[in-house]
Amino acid sequence: MGIVPHIDLTEISRVFLQPKNATHRQYEALRAFFVDGLPSAEAARRFGYTPGSFRVLCAQFRQNLDRPFFRDPPRGSATQRKSGRLRAQVVALRKQNHSVTEISRALEAAGERLSPAAVHKILSAEGFARLPRRADAERLPLTRPSAAEAADVRRLRLEPHSFRTRFGGLFLFLADLTRLPLDSLLASLRFPGSKMIPAGCAMRALLALKLYDGGRHSHVMGSVFDEGLALFAGLNAIPKRSFLSEYSCRVDPRLYPPFMTRWFSEMEHLHLDQGESLDCDFHTIPFHGEDALFERHYVSKRSRRQKGVLAFVAQDAETRVFRYANATVRKQDQNDEILRFVEFWKKQTGRPPQELVFDSRLTTYANLSRLNQMGIEFLTLRRRSPRMLQAIRQQPASAWRRIELDNVARLYRTPRVLDEKVQLAGYEGLLRQITVLDLGHQEPTLVLTNQLQRSPAKVITRYAQRMVIENGIAESIDFFHMDALSSAVPLKVDCDLQLTLMASSLYRLLASRVGNGYQRAKSRHLFRDLIDAPASVQIERDTIRVRYPKRAHNPLLLAAGYPERQCQVPWLGGKNLRLEFG
User: Fold this and answer.
1) Cα(498)–Cα(490) distance, rounded to whole angstroms?
2) Do 448 and 431 meet the contact criterion of CB atoms below 8 Å apart?
3) How far is CA 44 from the centre of its chain?
4) Strand order of the sheet with strand 161-165?
5) Which of 65, 116, 216, 279 could form a disulfide with 487 if both were Cys (CB 3.0 to 4.6 A apart)?
6) Domain tally for the chain?
7) 560: CB partners within 8 A, 6+ apart
């Protein structure tokens, strides 16, 4: 009996008569042909087959009449069936005073797999109570990870021997670190240390993990036997994660601002270029806990507000170095953080910053007026309101002019602009507002600046570059794992930010030495091409030789003169460091 096409099908009948998958369609087509007596061509047409393919389908079905179109439903889940079969064994093992974890492992050793949760469910159903807490001697013997020796600078082995390390790329930074008086700087600021792990060794250990793309500091436990990682810090073994967390809590947060200033003063002696324009932004570091002192801030990665630490960062637009970071910003003070950064910059360089670029939510119009009175140029966006958008739409076509953007790799390079001066509440004087259309956005973009003589094309190009650099800030934050503070190693945020500043400057210094387009490369790109390299380390009487295997990017390091950059490493017995490339 065929299906009449013109009859309206109900929603329930559609489930049977309009197949949704291939198996159901084959069943209905074969049933229409063999049971309902529908002609072969008509059955093929109705169910979407060609006449030839439907004849092949019928022939295959005649050869395999036992083909299953429907599955028999299982009776009970696989876990329930297995639990019923192993119930007697579980009960017998519990009567021998074994815990749920031990019972699960004993069953696995016997060739049966049952999770501790399933074991607990069986025991609860049988009426067994939880076992009291037992001493280690009462537990079953388990295979445990090998324990490394404790970190102690006095047990550092500098006698002649050799080893291999997967952290060979870290030694590329040693030549620059030896030219920085890190140990004396930390001593003058009274950073905490001990006879086993002095302050310099502790900071170098933390810095090594920040320089290497490890993701979280808790991952250090997988590298406690790597002698190269410990040698970089000047220790016999890298400190364990408990020490890393404890040390960051011992440092007084008031020590970080002067340390930040001294660090960048020393970096200038290493010819780390300093640009004239800075990109400023807020970044929320999520907090996953119940502390009532943490405020809720917007997290762009998750597009929501949640508890976290609000950090202010300033990045050099030219060299992409993090020049400033502050993790003590409270919600009521965030509008004035840009002014505190200006004061920090004036103390560090003796002059205010030349240009600041930031988004519309970073500060207020009154603070923009203060920046203008200080002689600081700025670029920012204005927030759009419905009334403002209506006024923009009413502008005549003659008020707009089309410009061309240079040196911007984007599809929309010829936007229309409306250049005018506006008066804003809280801002003394007139402020330049450039309204931009045809920039690839649904709504117009409103750029505010006190640069009255700069051409609109250059203003828009600079802010368009800021968008790219904002992505670079997010990439650097991700690479230096600033968002990983909720891991097994809860580093203090201010300590982590200081390490990020140090690692960022060392990466950009390496990029400037290598050249060949790496000056603008992202940190992850530099790590992948240059830093992520194993090495063979040979410690001799007066020399430490680090030999790298043959790699595609070794010629860049050779051309940058790294084999000739010999230096004496004070925390390694004054031995000379030599880098050799295969």
Assistant:
1) 15
2) yes
3) 55
4) 161-165, 535-539, 543-548, 575-581, 567-569
5) 216
6) 3
7) 513, 514, 515
Q: Find out whether 371 and 348 touch, Cβ atoms under 8 Å.
A: no
User: Which residue would you say has higher pLDDT here, 220 or 39?
Assistant: 39
Co-location of 491 and 528 in the same domain: yes
pLDDT tens profile 491-517:
677 888 888 888 888 998 999 899 888
> Considering the domain boundaries, does residue 118 fall inside one?
yes
Instruction: Please check whether residue 433 is in contact with residue 382, taking contact to mean a CB–CB distance below 8 angstroms.
Output: yes
Q: Which residues lie below 8 Å from residue 37, measured CB to CB, with a gap of 6+?
A: 1
Query: Is there a contact between 28 and 69 (Cβ–Cβ < 8 Å)?
Result: no
In 3D, which of 476, 469, 480, 511 has the Cα closest to residue 272? 511
**Model-level pTM?**
0.70
Nearest-angstrom CA–CA distance, 123 and 115 = 13
Backbone angles phi, psi at 323, to 5 degrees: -95, -20
Looking at residue 46, which CATH number applies to its domain? 1.10.10
- Return the C-alpha torsion angle 194, 198, 199, 203, nearest 10: -130
Residue 327 three-state SS: strand
Q: Where are the alpha helices (DSSP H) in 285-363?
A: 337-349
DSSP 130-148: PPPP--GGGSPP---PPPP
Per-residue pLDDT, averaged over 139-168, amounts to 84
Nearest-CA neighbor of 104 among 90, 123, 85? 90
Same domain for 491 and 562?
Answer: yes
Q: Answer positive or negative: Cα dihedral of 484, 485, 491, 497.
A: positive
Find where tokens 């408990």 sit: 242
Helical H segments across 377-438, by residue range: 386-393
Helix H or strand E encompassing 545: strand 543-548
How confident is the model at residue 133, as a pLDDT?
A: 78
* Spatial distance between the Cα atoms of 260 and 324, rounded to a whole number of angstroms: 8
Please give the C-alpha separations between residue 577 and each of 73, 180, 530, 540, in angstroms, as whole numbers: 70, 16, 18, 10
Residues 289-321: pLDDT tens digits? 666 667 777 776 667 787 777 888 888 887 778
Distance between terminal CA atoms of the chain?
Answer: 80
Structure tokens at 358: 């930031």
What number of other Cβ atoms are within 10 A of residue 36's Cβ? 12
- Domain presence at residue 422: no
Beta bridge partners of 418: 435
Return the bridge partners of 568, or none.
576
| Residue-range definition of the domain harbouring residue 220 | 156-253+487-581
Pair of tokens at residue 281: 């932004």
